[in-house]
Amino acid sequence: MIAAGTAQWSGSWKEGRGSLSTGTDTLADVPYDFASRFEGADGAIPEELLAVAYAGCLNQAFANVFGWGNFTAEFIETTVDVDNELSLDITQAGPITITMRAKVPGIEPGQFQGLAITAARGCLISRFLKVEPKMTFTLVD
Q: Is residue 77 predicted with pLDDT exceeding 70?
């Protein structure tokens, strides 16, 4: 399967406007501009879409890897924060932070941490990004 996205843009960087769409009906012509991306105005934020996609990918990776140890999560909740602060250093992106909480009956804390790290590194989006995010994994009783 190929996942596709399309972006349209017209105008300059700060005064222009654009829209984002997915190859499916998930997003259709969602507007975005400089103000929505960097100043908190209404509209889409490409990095926010990356964050939610990354969180979804991670949750499935966590569930898969927990299954390697014959564990099934009652719940997994993952938040991904992508820092899109503008910087003069074009060689360095802002940090990415992964925060995951999960309830996984029968798993030991050491197993949980090891499997979670394995999953986070193996997630497709992790492999695409090739970054080392800050990661916090919490096992809930």
A: yes
Adjacent-strand bridge partners of 79: 99
pLDDT band at 89 (very low <50, low <70, confident <90, very high): low
Please give the single-letter amino acid code of residue 49.
Answer: L
Provide the β-strand partners of residue 25: none
pLDDT digits (tens, 9 = 90+) for 31-43: 999 999 999 999 9
Please state whether 68 falls in left (phi above 0), alpha (psi between -120 and 50) or beta: alpha
Q: Are 118 and 110 in contact (CB under 8 A)?
A: no
The structure's pTM equals: 0.90
Q: Are 79 and 55 in contact (CB under 8 A)?
A: yes
- What distance in Å separates the CA atoms of residue 65 and residue 83, rounded to the nearest whole number? 27
* Residue showing tokens 């499935």: 60
What is the DSSP secondary-structure string of the chain?
----EEEEEES-TTT-EEEEEESSSS--SEEEEHHHHHS--SS--HHHHHHHHHHHHHHHHHHHHHHHTT---SEEEEEEEE-----S-TT-PPPEEEEEEEE-TT--HHHHHHHHHHHHHHSHHHHHHT---EEEEEE--
